[in-house]
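From the methods appendix. Each design record in this collection lists the tokenized structure first, followed by the designed amino acid sequence. Records were kept in a plain field format so they could be parsed without special tools. The example shown here is representative of the layout used throughout.

RECORD:
FOLD TOKENS (165 positions):
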């Protein structure tokens, strides 16, 4: 267990595990969903997964929405790659930036979870129906995340090729 915890980077801790734990604790307090686990190992994996989902929502919903309304403005990715090679502080600043985005997504997800619970109760839908809806939403979320990550990898390769020419 200690080896696993030692291998968790600060990025994983602050962008996945911490938001997942906070989500589990707060969601259990504001909804009827029972998320907190008695088994610590199962709990850590579940909270990490919850945090991963929350982080992806931040990346796919919060970030584009804030860009669209000009709340934030990003530097061109090629410039980011070039400057980050020279300035190691930029990576830390980006990590903190992503943590704030993930925390925004955390609070959005708490509101959405409460709203989802209320809708399910009003429609008198079964637990199975809501589970299938959740699985479908997760499938779409991770498919879009895969596409976005592939785009970043491609942009990084292109930026690397340009540096060597």
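DESIGN:
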């Amino acid at each position: 267990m200690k080896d696993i915890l030692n291998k968790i980077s600060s990025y994983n801790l602050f962008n996945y595990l911490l938001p997942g734990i906070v989500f589990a604790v707060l969601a259990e307090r504001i909804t009827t969903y029972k998320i907190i686990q008695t088994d610590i190992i199962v709990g850590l994996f579940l909270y990490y997964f919850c945090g991963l989902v929350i982080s992806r929502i931040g990346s796919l919903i919060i970030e584009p929405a804030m860009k669209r309304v000009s709340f934030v403005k990003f530097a061109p990715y090629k410039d980011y790659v070039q400057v980050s090679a020279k300035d190691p502080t930029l990576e830390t600043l980006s990590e903190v930036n992503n943590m704030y985005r993930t925390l925004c997504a955390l609070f959005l997800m708490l509101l959405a979870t409460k709203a989802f619970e209320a809708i399910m109760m009003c429609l008198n839908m079964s637990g199975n129906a809501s589970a299938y809806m959740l699985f479908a939403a997760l499938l779409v979320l991770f498919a879009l995340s895969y596409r976005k990550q592939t785009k970043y990898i491609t942009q990084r390769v292109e930026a690397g090729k340009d540096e060597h020419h």
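APPENDIX NOTE: Helices lie at 2-7, 10-30, 40-68, 77-86, 89-122, 127-163.
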